[in-house]
UniProtKB/TrEMBL annotation:
Pfam families: RadC. It comes from the Bacteria. PROSITE patterns: MPN, UPF0758. GO terms for biological process: proteolysis. Residues 24-149 form the MPN domain. This is RadC-like JAB domain-containing protein. It comes from Leeuwenhoekiella polynyae.
Amino acid sequence: METRINEIRVSYRPKLKAEHWPKISSSSLAAQVVFENWDQNTIAVYESFKILLLNNSNKVKGIYQISHGGITGTLVDLRLLFAVALKSLSVALILVHNHPSGTLRPSEADKNLTRKIKSAADFLDIKILDHLILIPTGEYYSFADEGIL
């Protein structure tokens, strides 16, 4: 009797050539890139959590939305986050989420999640360069700039 199983295929298909990928050299540039690519119809409505996927030259391979939630929070499944990071062969990430309320202060939950993600990333040899909080005006808070990453 023949045993049949499903085939698992892992792929990443970039649409832009690497020479067109923006290079991230500061938190302000990262915030600008993400804000310009955020749905402006939802940034003031509910929280979303996204990751900037970077290559070894800190060029943006892409942005991926990990989750979207309610007015005051969103859940992040680390398995999904790292599945995307590994599938895209990214060597560094910038974590980003929005606060629809306009508050730029990170909550304790934000800080705890950042520590948890960073710990897992260290194990996988993926760098977490920053965690940004965006508000609807485009202003941002940088964990790295504030020295709490």
